[in-house]
Amino acid sequence: xxxxxxxxxxxxxxxxxxxxxxxxxxxxxxxxxxxxxxxxxxxxxxxxxxxxxxxxxxxxxxxxxxxxxxxxxxxxxxxxxxxxxxxxxxxxxxxxxxxxxxxxxxxxxxxxxxxxxxxxxxxxxxxxxxxxxxxxxxxxxxxxxxxxxxxxxxxxxxxxxxxxxxxxxxxxxxxxxxxxxxxxxxxxxxxxxxxxxxxxxxxxxxxxxxxxxxxxxxxxxxxxxxxxxxxxxxxxxxxxxxxxxxxxxxxxxxxxxxxxxxxxxxxxxxxxxxxxxxxxxxxxxxxxxxxxxxxxxxxxxxxxxxxxxxxxxxxxxxxxxxxxxxxxxxxxxxxxxxxxxxxxxxxxxxxxxx
Length: 354
Description:
InterPro entries: PPR-containing_protein, PPR_rpt, TPR-like_helical_dom_sf. Keywords: Repeat. PPR repeats lie at residues 181-215. It comes from Stylosanthes scabra. By secondary structure, the chain is mostly helical. The chain is 64% helix and 0% strand. The protein is built from 19 helices and no strands. Helix 14 (253-265) runs parallel beside helix 16 and helix 15 (269-281) runs antiparallel to helix 16 (288-300). The radius of gyration is 26 Å and the shape is elongated.
């Protein structure tokens, strides 16, 4: 539960603003977590969990929580008694618990305990950095946090970022014996993007290297894909160039398709062609779907010469445009008097027996 004194904090104000619209997207998923249980049963479970915590028998906790596997609800958290502990004691106990879970097999055995721990820490008065440690252990156990974690993590992150840099917030994990990694940062990026905090996601992407987490293919893919869907093409192009030129990473085809679709929707087709040229110059392949989106964009803007140029480049890499586009390119070139280019394009298609 959220302490009353934090209801007016920036973190809770943000959560209240986005939680309703975000959770509606996941109604089918969340419905499975709503199961009414007798209050006395929940109280007894919490007492049993507390007894094992006080006895430091942490490995027994996952088995105790099996009855809650189908009813993960933030309204009844078996770790709510942690609020009676001092902050230092909470961190100590949670750390000991996380360490005790590492040898358990299968790795996902402590899944329910980790989910409740993550929810508790993110809603506590001092969520970071301990919540990032719980998140890291959850991900390393092969588990995916429940959907509402995106909202809770984003609000906690933004609250902490009011007075700290990206690198500083991440490096706070070291103060409790943990180290930030790409997996944790990537989940943070996906959370920020899930609730449309694109500007902050870009800042995290650019700042995570300062905490020793060099962005990887997934890091860029998450952010570029999200801001492309929002048609923020200036930022998306900048990140794509940084990814390809600075870090030498090969973008995933799914990410490229999203970027070119956004450029097409914004009618920025020249920028799309320039991006294809940059990718090929840097030795990265562009697949059929991306070429197709760019040709469609060219034809929509009546850029027939540009469409012919892209089509020729496409054939040089073993791809042939669909026949309807081939016809439109040739007809379009003829309609603007570009007969020589039209003939050259037609001959190129003919040489491929298309």
